[in-house]
Each structure stands twice: as C-alpha cells, then as structure tokens.
Design a protein that fits this description.
It is built from 11 helices and 16 strands.
C-alpha cells in the first residue's frame, strides 16, 4: 500500500523537469552472490538496506521530481522482500520500470507472472561473464552460469526483453566470441562488454587478472570481424570503443576528443535544450554510491564537467579514489550513417 497522501505527479511537474527523465535506483545493498569485483561489498551486506517506509517515500520523491522512467538495481534487487510493493508504488505514480538489473538467480515464473499481472514487461539485464566456468568463478556461486542462461531462456519464452553485461579479464578474454554466441543462442538481445573495474574487492579476489587498456582494445579489435562473420547475432557495445546493431552492418565508433580541462569553455557552453539532449536525461539515485567530485549522493551528471553522455551510456572521467578527474579523454560519437 502507498503512504497516505501519495499522489501521481501532475503533468506540469514532468514538463518543468527539463533534464532528468530516467533514474537508476539502487534499492538494496544486499546480494545472494559473492562476486569478485563487487563495488559495494553486497555479499556481506556491508551497506545494508533502506527500510520499507523510507523506500516508499523515496518513490514518492522520485515521482515529485517528474521522473518518468526508472531502472532497478542493487546489490541484487530481487532479494528485497518488498520488491513488488516498490514496483506497485512506482506504477501508481505512472513511472515506467524500464529495466531490472539482476544476476538471474531469482528470475522465475512467479516473478514474471506478477509483472505481467501489472501489465509490464521490463528488460531483464543480467550479468554473464563467459563460458567454460568463468561466470561461476566471477560470481562466486557454483551453477551461476547455468542459472542465468536458464533465466534468459525463460524471459524469451515469456516475451520479456533481455540484455547482458560481461566483465572482461585475463581469464575470459579469449572466450568473447564463444560467450557472445552462447548468449545469442539463449535469446539474449544485447551485450555490453567492459574490463573489470579495479574495485577493492577485485584487488583482493581478482588473482591479478586485470586487463590494461591496450590489452582490452586488442581483444575488441580481434573480435569485431568475428562479430560480423557470425551475423551480428545481438546488439553489441564494447565499452565505449565500438557499438554494433544486431543483424546488420550498422556500427558506431567514438572519436577521441579533448579532456574537459583542455576544452575551450565556449565549445562546451550549452543552452538548456542542448543540455537536455546531451545528458540523455539520466540521474543515479543511490545512497550507496557517492560522487567524490560533486560530494552528493544524487548524481546530476548532466551538470558535471567531468562526464559526457553518448548513446546509450555515460562516460565519467572522475577518479573515484582521489576525487578528481582522470587523465582520460572525452569521446563524442560518430557512426557509419546508418543508425537511426
């Protein structure tokens, strides 16, 4: 049940919110897996979980801000006992639930029935870190690979869209082609690949399997021809380096631009309508992650000098450990002209 006095946001609220369309909401710091790279120590529930009443109030506040769309993540969002109550709260405010980020273990018929009863089919975005046992190794749970592939199959059977994310490292880099083919065979519609982030957990448990930037790009370059030889079996995003559309020759590759501190301010000055377009209208809502640059738990990335949005993801050049910008480069996109 919603708190007394709750309401759906009037159309004027959404109209006045010119920049933020989507919230990426971390609803728990708990997880049922033991991932070697977890940035929030979720297996140990180090950051805990916000109580039910506060979460319901946060849903109301999200609505009052004029947010139109939410993706739900964790931790593992499906471990919350009040998960469906949060879903109901968001829907009561006419907020679309676009994605659920999950490891797939708790995706079952009952869950999909409950979502269908509410007339929604959000995308399930599930991690998959490679064939030959590497997914189980990364996620710290035997059988995790079989479980997530079964979840992809189930979502396909029930008409729920799916996407995947893969963490690349020394152990699984040679399996990228095989892993993409496996995901496609289980009806996964898109895949985003990135090297494993150097979290504290990964430094302890990663067994020195990190890739350098040069090694990562070499893996990408070696694989791209294979992607087309295999018929572009799914949508592919190689971490800001390359994006390909399924079943076609369409592609997008970034140009290399200047670091924000090196750019002429006149080149980056945007009016309000341009800012709305460049930002993609996204904001992260999480008490479990803090932007060291802005010193704020709600990241309004559209106004941040050290980030740049491009379709479909945010590139942030903050050094999360030092609280300042990395010596990275902003990457505006160009395409082969075929993308819509």
């Amino acid at each position: 049940m919603l708190p007394s006095g709750s309401r759906s946001p009037p159309a004027s609220d959404a109209a006045q919110n010119r920049f933020v369309r989507t919230a990426h909401w971390s609803i728990t710091g708990k997880c049922n897996y033991r991932c070697r790279h977890c940035y929030m120590s979720a297996p140990d529930a180090k950051l805990g979980e916000i109580d039910h009443d506060t979460m319901m109030d946060l849903a109301r506040q999200i609505a009052d801000c004029g947010i139109l769309e939410v993706s739900l993540t964790g931790g593992e969002p499906l471990v919350r006992r009040d998960f469906m109550e949060l879903v109901d709260a968001l829907l009561s405010y006419r907020i679309r639930i676009a994605q659920i980020y999950t490891n797939g273990k708790l995706v079952d018929e009952k869950l999909l029935d409950q979502l269908e009863e509410r007339g929604i089919r959000p995308e399930f975005n599930m991690s998959y870190d490679g064939t030959q046992g590497w997914h189980d190794w990364m996620r710290g749970v035997p059988g995790a690979g079989d479980a997530v592939l079964a979840a992809f199959d189930l979502c396909h059977e029930r008409g729920f869209p799916t996407g995947a994310e893969m963490c690349l490292h020394q152990g699984n880099k040679h399996l990228l082609r095989e892993s993409v083919s496996t995901l496609a065979a289980h009806h996964c519609e898109s895949l985003k690949v990135n090297p494993v982030a150097d979290t504290d957990t990964w430094e302890r448990l990663g067994e020195d399997r990190s890739l350098t930037l040069e090694e990562t790009f070499e893996v990408y370059l070696d694989y791209i021809p294979c992607f087309y030889e295999d018929g572009a079996p799914l949508g592919l995003h190689l971490g800001g380096f390359f994006m390909g559309r399924p079943g076609s020759g369409d592609w997008t590759i970034p140009n290399i631009g200047k670091h924000p501190e090196e750019r002429d301010p006149a080149e980056t000055e945007l009016d309000e309508s341009e800012l709305a377009a460049v930002s993609g209208g996204s904001v992260i809502v999480s008490p479990l992650f803090k932007c060291n640059y802005q010193q704020d738990n709600t990241l309004c990335c559209a106004s941040c000098a050290y980030s740049r949005f491009s379709y479909p993801n945010l590139y942030c050049f903050l050094d999360k450990n030092e609280g300042g910008p990395k010596p990275a480069e902003v990457m505006p996109l160009q395409s082969n002209g075929n993308l819509q």
